[in-house]
């Protein structure tokens, strides 16, 4: 794996780091990586993704290749993840899953890709990459599979928005329309750069793609996308807009909405933990026991009819003033004009119920809602 560079504060540099500095962006610590909160203005970046097309540097995400050695890579991987690998029925398919400890607590949530029947690529969150790689190695007794951490060899650009396909189509001969959601094509050519993986995935709730690019060529493709997309309203985006976009779309973030103390059922991703999975996996018994228990928590959405914005970690109370849970994420939704977010509360509390959130000593009333505001908005 290529050696990663760090800045004066010890933050890892993505292939875009020097570009950010040249543009005068303020760099912040995001899971040990140096990334900007905004490149222009968060509201403008957010709006561009919803209405046109935006570019995100997601190079902090991990890329870990697993190949068959003494046992099949997918059979081995099935013993570590909550989802069922047999659902990935063809090369180029992707799946979302969680990786848990024996007590059911989540080590990470991630997407992995089927390269072929003997090879897969795992993409852990950047802040969890080393932990996940070590976890994989610890459970690779006697070299059952071949594990290679290629994170620093790759850059990752997310091209997101209703005009994403039109923009990317100007730079590649790949039949983008043929790439299904949660699928990809490997070894494509984009802007003259070879060996680019084009994946129809994203973290914004909009149509779009993620481009896994050899690190040395990432800035070339980024600049070409900016150049070619001027008439489409292309906008360079950063962490702030990514957060508001994912919250409107009901998408969780590791470290905010769940962590090692939270199992995937309470964390709101039960869909990634099929009840009928026959294969044993780490955490299976603990998760099954939690599901069968009487006291369970759920991740719910909320909205506030006011200006006070609840933030991560704030207490949630019921109408009687009893503490029942916690805010896991919160922001003002640019698309709707009011504060929204996620809370983790007992399953007794349903959509439509009123709750009280302690916002810096002020009791703010909120209503429990569905989490995916964007889907509700589009349906109406």
Automatic annotation (TrEMBL):
<feature type="domain" description="GCVT N-terminal">
    <location>
        <begin position="16"/>
        <end position="277"/>
    </location>
</feature>
<comment type="similarity">
    <text>Belongs to the GcvT family.</text>
</comment>
<dbReference type="InterPro" id="IPR022903">
    <property type="entry name" value="GcvT_bac"/>
</dbReference>
<dbReference type="InterPro" id="IPR006222">
    <property type="entry name" value="GCVT_N"/>
</dbReference>
<dbReference type="GO" id="GO:0004047">
    <property type="term" value="F:aminomethyltransferase activity"/>
</dbReference>
<dbReference type="InterPro" id="IPR006223">
    <property type="entry name" value="GcvT"/>
</dbReference>
<comment type="function">
    <text>The glycine cleavage system catalyzes the degradation of glycine.</text>
</comment>
<dbReference type="InterPro" id="IPR013977">
    <property type="entry name" value="GcvT_C"/>
</dbReference>
<protein>
    <recommendedName>
        <fullName>Aminomethyltransferase</fullName>
        <ecNumber>2.1.2.10</ecNumber>
    </recommendedName>
</protein>
<comment type="subunit">
    <text>The glycine cleavage system is composed of four proteins: P, T, L and H.</text>
</comment>
<dbReference type="Pfam" id="PF01571">
    <property type="entry name" value="GCV_T"/>
</dbReference>
<keyword id="KW-0032">Aminotransferase</keyword>
<dbReference type="InterPro" id="IPR029043">
    <property type="entry name" value="GcvT/YgfZ_C"/>
</dbReference>
<dbReference type="Pfam" id="PF08669">
    <property type="entry name" value="GCV_T_C"/>
</dbReference>
<keyword id="KW-0808">Transferase</keyword>
<feature type="domain" description="Aminomethyltransferase C-terminal">
    <location>
        <begin position="301"/>
        <end position="371"/>
    </location>
</feature>
<dbReference type="InterPro" id="IPR027266">
    <property type="entry name" value="TrmE/GcvT-like"/>
</dbReference>
<dbReference type="InterPro" id="IPR028896">
    <property type="entry name" value="GcvT/YgfZ/DmdA"/>
</dbReference>
